[in-house]
Design brief:
The protein is of the alpha/beta class. The chain has 10 helices and 10 strands. Helix 1 packs parallel to helix 5, helix 2 crosses helix 10 and helix 9 packs antiparallel against helix 10.
């Protein structure tokens, strides 16, 4: 089993302090003291959100919690977050960067301190977690963010020389960008690139790279189109993270229940989630089947 670094526990403590919470109990946990009854876990309409919600729901059930699921809320990927805000859900998967944009629109996202070890991207996640916890609406909290990222990034052919956002090495060629994906590449990655080649979708962007019409493609980290390519390295956290995290009603979970959600944090990776999404989107597995398979391989203790 993977384990989270001890720095995240410190981050959670700092988040409570920043939020001005007065809690005589376990301050490293963002849940309330008592919460009898059924916990309602919901998701947005994407395959990723459904799988994430089912993983959280299964973890709670394994601890003896009665759970009701409401999957595929819509319209929009923020539908489940809005349902938690309204009190219609107890738990929903969210993305750290997307939550920051929701509650602090236009504000620069927090990054790791300059003195942090640049090879440790979790330093950025910790800074983001602390700052985000402090700006959540009253009554909402976060469990530990997972290792799974859901965001557009640059991808290159596996056989190409290694490319990195540190020093902008290997980023001089044309970039295939799907419709609806961020187009200000220099602003997003902090590096000059070759010209943008606009394409219809992520499959077309990956195909442009395979056929030599572009050197790079901008793809979602969970996209099946990215499976035959390699992600451009971002060792210094130049791109703000969108890590999967449970958004919770503080009055809806006990300490023990919130800790069950946090058990997922060190287990669910981007590669894991991308594989599950591919299985669901191809019709190979249902979200429930994909989740059961993952839980069987990752005992949550």
């Amino acid at each position: 089993m993977r384990t989270r670094p001890s720095r995240l526990a410190a981050a959670a403590l700092a988040a409570v302090a920043l939020a001005g919470c007065s809690d005589p109990g376990d301050q490293a946990d963002l849940g309330p003291r008592t919460a009898p009854g059924t916990v309602t876990v919901g998701s947005a309409g994407s395959a990723a959100s459904k799988v994430e919600a089912l993983i959280y729901a299964t973890a709670l059930r394994m601890a003896g919690t009665p759970v009701e699921t409401r999957l595929g809320l819509g319209p929009g990927e923020d539908a489940a977050v809005a349902a938690v805000e309204r009190g219609e859900l107890t738990v929903a998967p969210a993305l750290t960067g997307a939550l920051w944009e929701r509650y602090r629109p236009g504000a620069a996202q927090p990054t790791k301190a300059k003195e942090e070890e640049s090879e440790n991207p979790r330093a950025q996640w910790d800074a983001q977690f602390v700052a985000l916890s402090a700006v959540l609406p009253e009554g909402l909290g976060l469990g530990d963010p997972t290792l799974a990222l859901d965001q557009p990034m640059l991808f290159a052919p596996k056989e190409a020389p290694s490319a990195t956002l540190r020093g902008c090495e290997g980023l001089s060629g044309a970039v295939a960008v799907p419709a609806g994906s961020p187009a200000d590449l220099r602003g997003r990655y902090g590096c000059p690139t070759g010209p943008v080649v606009a394409v219809a979708d992520e499959a077309a962007a990956a195909r442009a790279v395979r056929e030599g019409r572009a050197a790079l493609a901008q793809l979602g980290t969970l996209s099946p189109a990215a499976q035959d390519l390699v992600q451009v390295a971002d060792p210094d956290g130049a791109v703000p993270s969108r890590a999967v995290v449970p958004l919770v009603r503080r009055d809806g979970l006990t300490v023990a229940q919130t800790k069950r959600l946090s058990a997922i944090a060190g287990e669910l990776t981007t590669a894991d989630l991308a594989e599950l999404v591919a299985q669901v989107e191809s019709g190979e597995r249902t979200p429930e089947q994909a989740t059961d398979d993952w839980i069987a391989e990752h005992p949550l203790k």
